[in-house]
Description:
Layout: H1 5-10, H2 21-38, E1 44-48, H3 51-62, E2 69-73, H4 76-87, E3 92-96, H5 105-112, E4 118-122, E5 124-125, E6 130-131, H6 134-144, E7 147-151, E8 170-174, E9 185-190, H7 192-200, H8 210-217, H9 228-244, H10 246-264, E10 270-271, E11 280-284, H11 290-301, E12 306-307, E13 316-320, H12 327-344, H13 347-351
Parallel strand pairs: 2-3, 2-4, 4-7, 7-8
Antiparallel strand pairs: 1-9, 5-6, 8-9, 10-11, 11-13, 12-13
Helix pairs in contact: 2-9, 3-4, 5-6, 10-12, 11-12
Amino acid sequence: xxxxxxxxxxxxxxxxxxxxxxxxxxxxxxxxxxxxxxxxxxxxxxxxxxxxxxxxxxxxxxxxxxxxxxxxxxxxxxxxxxxxxxxxxxxxxxxxxxxxxxxxxxxxxxxxxxxxxxxxxxxxxxxxxxxxxxxxxxxxxxxxxxxxxxxxxxxxxxxxxxxxxxxxxxxxxxxxxxxxxxxxxxxxxxxxxxxxxxxxxxxxxxxxxxxxxxxxxxxxxxxxxxxxxxxxxxxxxxxxxxxxxxxxxxxxxxxxxxxxxxxxxxxxxxxxxxxxxxxxxxxxxxxxxxxxxxxxxxxxxxxxxxxxxxxxxxxxxxxxxxxxxxxxxxxxxxxxxxxxxxxxxxxxxxxxxxxx
Length: 356
């Protein structure tokens, strides 16, 4: 993902020592900025780790042995919640959706009525591009008294995300998506209901102990050595977002996604989800092999797009609209796709059985 040059330049600086008053002030500013992008008045935990580390933090700090979780499983990252529950021996069920399928709220309500105490969801299932109606889900979980946990990793800053207003109790985020930063930082935001639960659950972890982080963050510190260079980049990025406004940043993602999808209409390929995010476009290839298209873009044009894995590997690839992408980048990609699909559609290709 293209990262703004002034943020890359900060990564070249000598990393600061974290146990100073100056670094504590930096941390306070970061926490304020994170509250803004999550749209929450609650605390946010600062973690050096990946998005999956933040997800595992939630499982290890907010679930008890007698909890029964329901996972909204719409793809690779919904499945990750299931995998985490399985690894830690926690009871859970999965409400599975087909790739790109929108959620039926009546089906969800029925599933939640089966003695469920926690719902795990993915705001935007990055493997398919599907964006879920978190506001409607939040109304349902709040009415039923169910803790609502959301993987917001690829939606915050790209789509509207109103944590407090939408009754989301816990949300996780990482640095390398809509924030357009290098990977390595992750965040766990918490509302009042989550904090109440946190007080009554015995954490099963040292490094991911949320209570220890929240206590240390009161003095602008974290319990273990943070990625200080990334903190500098994060601090500046949050200042940039506050200055430009979150609404404008979301609008930029929306415009890039719209323009790319409109241009894509001229090609013999399509998009997958019924309710797409602004963060990416999931491109379905029809008679073409998606993985072959990804390889051709890389080798013939020097363009990187994201392949899929598993059952979607040969059906879908993904185009990011996050980071410093320009209209020229989008135009170059459309031209490259036009060239590749034309080549793959030649009669001699079809006569040999097409792409496999």
